[in-house]
User: Which sequence fits this backbone?
């Protein structure tokens, strides 16, 4: 593996020399480009190099040099004998690229340079000798670079420098030692799909401008509903910009189902509505209530047991309290894999209560392995009793951000809730099946194509591939738990094996290990995780999250979703925590 700062060519030359003047290097580069980009890399290599031309050198971590590079030829003969003009990006601007007249050659050359930068970053993201983060404080980055927007255009040499600078300070979320969030990893097929989506640059509101993408959304949502357990994959759904919006959609639809007049008349026309969710649920439920005019005070937090699971008896008690006050319970949001503990609410009991009191049941679910007696498998099957489900493939399934879906059991309800009949988009006399014009059931008008990443990865992996992916992450979480549960200097936040890939623990430095368990010890312990995290970021070696919860002071919340991680990376994390925290 190449060392940090080495040129891209050292990753791909056939003889290992990394010499860009070596013809074998050009061939090796094309193999790498084709691996990551498929037909795009193939076409670029053919257009830019032919069989005889050598690619220009792409520098390592430094800025692109203002040197002449060979531009592409647009003729149909490959290889050809056409003279190649030199390209000097210092004298080119965006106006020289397509659709400019004679813009094909500089466009292909410029995009090739960008591709070099991207592929170098991709490869380095998996190199454990590189930093996870090159941390600088905000004021340092603001002072070191001029980020301001100007009236006059910059040349393409400067644009390439901006690309490199941006990636230089980006967090390598695909790095095997990045554990900071649940959305980690860098899937190559998903990345290729994201590039294709941006190239297509279309909107999801009508079939006429996104025919394949609309059909893929239909097929994929149906498959997801089948997995949830709704007969024949029946129901509805939509991809939205993140789980928070999916959860808000669920609140909107639940409110509309109970009081359809709210769409025209607003909250003044309905009684005080109450939603219920566990005290460990995602904060997006309160955000949604605030955005919809329901109010955060109308979101009742239900007590959890020591493992973070909602207590059904407390849920029923709070429902009865709300009804006695004249309020109207309209939604219960359960969680199958909470953010911090990874806990699974007792969905069967929650479903019984919702049925008893005629309340909409929503489930925010993490998907996982299909294994008999698996808590997650049971959660998936029990979610079939829900009225709506939020499913975020950009989490455990490793789909590049963003990719979230809301699934709704009742078909047509989402459309009725949100449609506005915009006549310039949703004409009723079109010559194709109008059910594929899905944009009117969304809150957004402009809607990004998020489905293609998931669909293409699903085709590449199959359902079994996703199961293997998640199984590995669950196994790594159990491996971490088994190492630290009895290790000196570690205390578990709760007893027992992790319910998902979340492992919550305190690291206790030697200076605190002999102290009595009192307020002073807790006060000092609360400062340990933040200091270790800050040191991790400054060294750039790894990243893991921390937080307090209830009466528990700051603890590490380890979440594993990156399939690139190994036992050795878990071992490294433990050793690094001890190295950075032993003097505290």
Assistant:
């Amino acid at each position: 593996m190449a060392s940090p700062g080495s040129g891209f060519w050292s990753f791909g030359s056939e003889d290992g020399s990394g010499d860009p003047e070596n013809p074998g290097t050009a061939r090796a580069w094309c193999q790498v480009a084709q691996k990551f980009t498929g037909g795009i890399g193939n076409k670029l290599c053919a257009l830019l190099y032919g069989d005889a031309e050598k690619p220009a050198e792409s520098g390592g971590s430094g800025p692109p040099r203002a040197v002449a590079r060979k531009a592409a030829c647009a003729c149909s003969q490959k290889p050809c004998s056409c003279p190649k003009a030199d390209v000097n990006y210092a004298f080119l601007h965006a106006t020289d690229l397509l659709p400019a007249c004679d813009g094909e050659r500089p466009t292909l050359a410029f995009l090739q340079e960008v591709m070099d930068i991207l592929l170098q970053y991709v490869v380095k993201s998996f190199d454990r000798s590189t930093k996870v983060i090159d941390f600088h404080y905000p004021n340092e980055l603001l002072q070191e670079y001029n980020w301001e927007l100007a009236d006059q255009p910059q040349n393409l040499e400067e644009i390439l420098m901006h690309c490199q600078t941006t990636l230089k300070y980006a967090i390598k979320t695909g790095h095997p030692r990045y554990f900071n969030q649940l959305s980690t990893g860098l899937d190559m097929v998903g990345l290729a799909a994201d590039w294709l989506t941006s190239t297509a640059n279309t909107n999801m509101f009508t079939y006429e401008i996104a025919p394949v993408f609309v059909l893929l959304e239909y097929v994929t949502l149906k498959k997801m509903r089948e997995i949830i357990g709704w007969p024949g994959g029946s129901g509805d759904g939509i991809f939205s910009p993140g789980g928070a919006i999916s959860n808000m959609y669920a609140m909107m639809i639940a409110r509309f189902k109970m009081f359809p007049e709210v769409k025209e008349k607003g909250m003044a026309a309905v009684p005080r509505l109450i939603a219920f969710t566990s005290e460990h649920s995602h904060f997006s439920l309160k955000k949604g209530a605030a955005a919809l005019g329901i109010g955060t005070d109308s979101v009742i937090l239900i007590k959890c047991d020591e493992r973070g699971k909602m207590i059904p008896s407390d849920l029923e008690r709070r429902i009865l309290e709300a009804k006695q006050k004249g309020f109207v319970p309209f939604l219960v949001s359960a969680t199958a894999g909470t953010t911090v503990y990874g806990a699974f609410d007792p969905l069967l009991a929650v479903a019984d209560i919702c049925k008893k009191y005629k309340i909409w049941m929503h489930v925010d679910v993490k998907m996982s392995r299909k294994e008999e007696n698996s808590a997650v498998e049971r959660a998936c099957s029990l979610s079939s009793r829900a009225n709506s489900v939020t499913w975020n493939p950009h989490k455990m399934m490793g789909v590049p951000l963003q990719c979230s879906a809301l699934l709704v059991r009742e078909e047509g309800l989402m459309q009725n809730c949100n449609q506005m009949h915009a006549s310039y988009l949703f004409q009723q006399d079109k010559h194709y099946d109008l059910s594929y014009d899905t944009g009117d059931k969304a809150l957004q008008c402009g809607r990004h194509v998020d489905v293609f990443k998931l669909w293409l990865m699903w085709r590449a992996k199959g359902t079994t591939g996703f199961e293997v992916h998640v199984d590995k992450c669950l196994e790594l979480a159990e491996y971490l738990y088994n190492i630290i549960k009895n290790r000196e200097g570690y205390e578990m936040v709760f007893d027992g094996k992790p319910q998902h890939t979340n492992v919550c623990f305190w690291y206790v430095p030697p200076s605190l290990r002999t102290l009595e368990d009192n307020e002073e010890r807790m006060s000092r312990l609360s400062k340990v995780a933040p200091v270790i995290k800050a040191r991790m970021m400054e060294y750039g070696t790894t990243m893991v999250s921390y937080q307090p919860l209830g009466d528990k002071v700051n603890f590490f919340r380890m979440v594993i979703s990156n399939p690139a991680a190994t036992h050795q990376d878990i071992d490294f994390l433990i050793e690094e925590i001890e190295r950075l925290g032993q003097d505290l």
